[in-house]
Amino acid sequence: MRQLNDFPISKVDAIENFLGQECTQLWGEGNHHKNKERESYVLMSNETMTPSSLSPSSVTLSDSAVVLDTPQDLPQREFGLATRCVLVSNPGDPYAAASVPIYQTATFKQSSACEMGAFDYTRSGNPTRSALESHLEKLMKCERAFVVSTGMSALDAILRLARSGDEIIAGDDLYGGTNRLLTYIKQTLDITVHHVDTTSVAAVQAAIHPQKTKFVLLESPTNPMLKIADIRTISALVHEACPDALVIVDNTMMSPILMNCLDLGADIEYHSGTKYLSGHHDLMAGVIAVKEKAVADRIYFIINSIGCGLAPFDSYLLLRGIKTLSLRLERQQQNAEKIAEFLESSGFTVYYPGLDSHPQKKLHMSMAKGAGAVLSFVTGDVSKSERIVEACKVWGISVSFGCVNSLISMPCNMSHASIPAEVRKARALPDDLIRLCVGIEDIEDLLDDLKAALDSAESFYPASKKKKTIA
Ligand SMILES: Cc1ncc(COP(=O)(O)O)c(C=O)c1O
Ligand SMILES: N[C@@H](CCSC[C@H](N)C(=O)O)C(=O)O
Questions:
Q1: CATH class held by domain 325-470
Q2: CATH architecture of 127-323
């Protein structure tokens, strides 16, 4: 595969002039035409990822270098997500660097006193961050993508679109930090937050106020109970009842590989980039993907104003992480399926949308390409759960998920500890819940470690079976 930068800039300019649009990448497969001296290239513009939509119709720039034939023999389809993950473009790099350089600079010198160049100050924009954002735009097929310092700052930037008197509808099973930020907003601003069961379309519908609802904020699957919201139906009914309201989905659990919430009707999809997108727990990041330009412009204004754009080095790391996203998630999900089956066959109540026993498996699979790699289960006894968690050796006791390493945690003590105990109880979040975030290790090692931990915690068999054994 060749990239645009493999060709002399003058040729790139000529192609761009011919097409009347900026080229981000040029792919080629040399010598696959009958005429061995000619090469056929697929040109990818900023406008599209679809090779078939480009019709350069036989551009002959030079017999020895670039000939752009109409690519009839190339697949008339969009590139797959795994391909899009690795195809990072960096147009205009004078050295054709294979990996996007880190522009570790706060400011950019200008050649004019009255006109700014493409970049002036890293809070407003930085080439490394821009490369990451355009990469995400192609991957997530959105009008604009933004990368910010954390998942929480992504939500913070979005929530700043709300005005005094607005109402927000959110789930009653959701990440603890999200609950904390919503509670803060509710307590300090004149904004009402309704927490409803987002597995019920009727419950969401009942909470809508045609004039006041500003956001419907969904997690699907939820963290940590893996409940599913019908994003399609909810988006349609919210837009119908409340044309000014925005449907926002925290898609961290699925990542852009398994689900595209904008395609399902949402207006904004955001992620904790700290999780699957990065994949290695070596950075914090947030991603906001926006469907419409008007909303995107406002979000950019907020990000620039508050200064939460992702730093150049972290942008570089995230760009690198995304290249292996598809591969990592495939393995993580395979492992998760086996772990979920093992736990269920051992008698535990397991929450995982890939299991037939999950009441919303069908709905989930109608929206997503897989069940992901996070699951949770209950043991019936808090201290037993604690013993299991502490007995694991391969599974690390840690908050977060999406890392290549497998993690085990107790949400009520850890990721969701910021939700007051009485609220957790009212929302039926079990104290004994164990959450597993499955990594890429050998499945035998994950299973063995978990089995040993269950054995040592004397909970390999759930209470009912165990009683029978003892009797
Ligand atoms: C579902 C979900 N959304 C958002 C966040 C916030 O992301 P971050 O930790 O990157 O701020 C988290 C975890 O922290 C999460 O689990
Ligand atoms: N101490 C942190 C806990 C972060 S939880 C991270 C992640 N979202 C998860 O679900 O594990 C805090 O108070 O935010």
A1: alpha beta
A2: 3-Layer(aba) Sandwich (3.40)
